[in-house]
Structure formats: structure tokens, C-alpha cells
# Entry
Amino acid sequence: MKIYSCCGTDSITKKHACPTCRESKHEEKEVSDKGTVYSYTKIHIAPAEFADIAPYNVVLVDLDEANAKVTARIQEDVEIGDAVKLSRVEKGAYVYEKVSNTSAVV
Amino acid sequence: MTNVYVHGIGMTKFGKLDSSLKELLLEASTEALNDAGRPKIDAVFVGNFMGGSISNQEILGALIANDLGLGYIPSTKVEGACASGGIAFRQGVIGVLSGEYDTVLIAGVEKMKHASTPDVTQAINSAMDTTSTEKHAGLTFPGFFGVLANRYFYETGASKEHLARVALKNRENGVRNPLAQFPKPTSLEEIMAARMITDPLGLFDCSPMTDGAAAIVISRKKSPIHVRSSAQVSGPTQMQDAVDLLSIPAIGESGRLAYEKAGVGPEDIDVVEIHDCFSMTEIIATEELGFFNRLEGWKAVEEGRTKVTGDKPVNTSGGLLSRGHPIGATGIAQLYQLVRQLRGNAANQVANTPRLALAQNLGGTGSYSTVHILERV
# Structure
């Protein structure tokens, strides 16, 4: 997963300019897509384009290898602190999945 | 401090209405103009979000100027998602402050009830960064505040019952406001058991789709209601960009600026209208605006401090949750309620006629926030 860093801030989104130095000199680095669930919701009432898959879970994932979070969809129901990893990228969305043996993840 | 004063206010009933966008605008504007004594208007600003996408109607400023016979004057529509009304008001204030205009009419309007819920939800989603991965993941506005609420519960002692208490308070206020959308009383039990919209937010935790309009006339000429300060800030446009999920910096920073310009602090404010698009948002906003400590807004709800009879009455109109949320009208409707509080003739009038009132209007998931402080002089 690609992370953009500048002036000590990591982000999953690439800004045109850094909010601190206002330059466009982000360092790109590749980090693991693994992380933990920071928070979540199950969306029952969806906009028209997602109505066919509702209800569905959206999670905010705290990445293990960066000081950044990523918003993703996830199949399973989750709790805060659950270990998750990227399953696939689908129509521009990150789709995550639970790491099967959570207890083995430190 | 500004040299701007409020001269007139107007507001339609909020709810499901047969009137067109134009008719709603004209009704609220006429009432505000009459309340102000029919002054000569130098400019019009209109707050509106989805007239184009849902009603196929733009040129709202010119419609008012033309149909109300205001003459060949400048008129402008302002869009800032759910903060469209607050931003339109601020543009009017700046217009007077600049010296360009003496007297300005600002109106806000939205018509939503004629469209289906998925279509309205889709239109509202245009206030997200539509190129972002999180939009493609299916995040919605209620979804953002659902994610925020679950984390808030995790980090504090708050629970769904505290959200329900916000919804119940605002419904109790709405029931006593004849212009509010929801006249029907409810109970904590009914709120807690209502169908889920986005976990943990149920039906009563979410502001409704609403038709309605509100309007206000301001001028450099003095009146008993002084616009003491006006502030506006932009913030992160994506949840995954938030430095701290439990903070909405646009609210905090717009509040800080408004207090600084007015020379007052949160402890001086007597009555408040804040942007409770969701019950969770009201709690976060009361923290961001400095009324309560960070991560302790839920305790103030538990203690009844934000009720009409509390020491910091919040949303005496019923708020977005029960007055209703016709998006572009909301920021102006907040000011309507506060002007009536300062005049001493509001629905749910606060005791000992308040002197300082604060309105906070939010757009997107923290993309825009305006704060206005009004003073009875």
C-alpha cells in the first residue's frame, strides 16, 4: 500500500501540496496493508449506487507500518482492535478482510 | 466586532411541503422583509445545496430579486453543502462590512421530500471527495458519524443511550416549536429501538429530509440585534485524513476565531444552535466549541445541561434532528431561532432573555464550518 509522507505526516491520500511546507515533494513509500480496526459502522441505508450491497461494513483501518489510516469496506462484522488485511481493490475501493487467526497476530 | 445588525427574519414551516423552491424562498423572504420594515435591499445571497441536482432549478438569487421587485441588484447563490446557509449569511455580512452594501437579504432553501431516499443520499454524497477511495468504499455522511460514534463509545463512558438523550431533548424542543418538522413526542425507549441507519445511529439519531426556507435581513443601520462576529473555516474532506477522528477541527477553529473576533468566550454564551446533523455531532460540537471538556460532552447531556432549562441550552428550536434539515436553509433557520431568543419571543424561550447567542453550521464531514455570535444591544 502506497503512503505519502512530508514534514512528518503520513497519508494514504496524495495531496497536491503538503499542509505544513506547501511544497509538492512527498516521499512515496510502500508499506504493508495490514492494520487494526480503529472504528467501524454497518451501513443499512445506502446511496443508490451501493443499495444492492446494503447492509455493508465500512472500517477505518490504522495501518501497522505507517502513521496513517485507510477507509475500506469489509465483508465480516468487526470490533475495534481486530487485525485486518487487504483482500482486493474493487472499483476504486479498498476491500479488507479479517486476519483469520487474530490471536496469532501480535 | 462588526457594524452589522439584524433587522428582519422569516421562516416557513419545515416538513413535507407542496410549495416549489421559488415559492418557499419568496415566502420566507417576504416575511423577513416585512419584519425589517421593507427596506431598500442592495444585494441578495441564497444558500442552497441541491436545487440543481434534485429540482433542476438554479438562478435562485435572481428569482428572489425579480419576483420581489428588488430592482437591478446583485444576487448570488452560495454552495457549501450543509453549511450553505451559514456561508451565505457570512457573505452578506462581509458585503456590508466591505462598505459595498448597506442592507442585504440572505435566504436559505432546500426541497428534498419529493425525491427518493437513495437519490437524495446520492445527491448528498456530492459533498464528499468523489474521487476518493473512501467514497468508492461506500462511506456515507451518516456512516462517517457512525464510525466516529463507535470510536467515541470506545474511548469514553458514552453509549447509545447518550445519543438517544440528545435526540430526545431535541424532539422535546421540536414538539414545542410550531415551525418544526416533528410535532410528535417520543420516548427514550422508542428512540433506542428504532431501525438502524448506520450502526450505532438509528432513525432518531439522524436528521431528516426536509422542505423549507428561512431568510434574514441585515444592515449597517443599528437595530437591537448586533452581529458581534462571523467566522468560517475549511477542514479535512476525508475521514481517512483526520488527524484525530474524535475532533472536527473546522468546528473548533471557526469557534475559536468567532470568540476572538467577538472578544468573548464559550462561558459568555447564553443560548446555542449547533449543527446536530446527527446526535453524535451535537456532542462533538459542544466539545469543539469549548462548552464542555473534550470527550466529556456526553456527561453534560446526562446531566441535562444542554436542555432549555440547563446552563448551556443547545438547539432550543429542536435542532436539525427535530426542527428538520432543509440543507441550504439550516444555517439561516439557526439564526432565526437565536434572533427570537434574543428578542424574548422564541419557541422554548430561555429564561432571563439571553444576551449572547451562538450559531454553528457544518458542511460535509467537517469540510466547512461557520460560527456567528449575535448580541442583544
In short: DSSP finds no helices and eight strands in chain A.
